[in-house]
Write a structure and sequence with these properties.
By secondary structure, the chain is α/β, with parallel strands linked by helices. Helix content is 51%, strand content 13%. A five-stranded parallel sheet has the order 2-3-1-4-5, sandwiched between helices. The protein is globular and about 50 Å long. Keywords: ATP-binding, Coenzyme A biosynthesis, Cytoplasm, Kinase, Nucleotide-binding, Transferase. It catalyses: 3'-dephospho-CoA + ATP = ADP + CoA + H(+). Pathway: Cofactor biosynthesis; coenzyme A biosynthesis; CoA from (R)-pantothenate: step 5/5. ATP binds at residues 13-18.
């Protein structure tokens, strides 16, 4: 039987990565949309060639890899350019994700994506799990992890879907406001529940 797909998302600093690791420990096949987004623009890919043609050689590093920072600064203030890039990349990323998930051996597979809701990737999933955290904790965790300022974290929070938007799409919500041992036991509990589902629905 084909595995059903669980979409896993949450804002910056919500603890998505920790939750993803615990699911992998349970033997669940998992793909990260961020990794897929990197695969589609590796040197030699048609997408990278199109990006260079559109934005110029300035978006390449000396070794031929995409210079993400340079590209980000070009599209950050420019909605039209960002839309052009998303129109090119989102279908390709979706394809990569689908091919990868199709190889899953586990009863269900997980798509981890910080932009699950915004990018429309939630349509690839039969069920959505949102990792939620109080905003002050998100800011604190992200600052520690990325060594950035509270302002930068706030800016990223604003660019991501609001908690309300994400929670509207959620079938399950895991409020990650305690310690890792508790988080791990919650993931085990969810995993056992997911194993009882057919096609992601009770």
């Amino acid at each position: 039987m084909k595995p059903w797909i669980l979409g896993l998302t949450g804002g910056i600093g919500s603890g998505k990565s920790a939750v993803a690791h615990y699911f992998i420990d349970q033997g669940v096949h998992l793909v990260d949309a961020d990794h897929a987004a990197r695969w589609v623009v590796e040197p030699g890919t048609p997408a990278l060639a199109k990006i260079v043609e559109h934005f110029g050689e300035g978006v390449l590093q000396s070794d031929g890899q995409l210079d993400r920072a340079a590209l980000r600064s070009l599209i950050f203030q420019n909605p039209e350019q960002r839309l052009w890039l998303e129109t090119l990349l989102h279908p390709l990323i979706g394809q990569e994700i689908s091919q990868y998930l199709a190889r899953a051996e586990s009863p269900y597979a997980i798509l981890v994506s910080p932009l699950l809701v915004e990018s429309g990737q939630h349509r690839l999933a039969q069920r959505v799990l949102v990792i939620d955290a109080p905003e002050h904790l998100q800011v604190q965790r992200a600052m520690q992890r990325d060594q950035t300022s509270a302002e930068q974290v706030q800016a990223i929070l604003k660019a991501q879907a609001s908690r309300e938007q994400r929670l509207q799409h959620a079938d399950d919500v895991l409020l990650n406001d305690r310690n890792l041992a508790w988080l791990k036991s919650e993931v085990e509990r969810l995993h056992n529940f997911y194993l009882t589902l057919r096609g992601g629905q009770p």
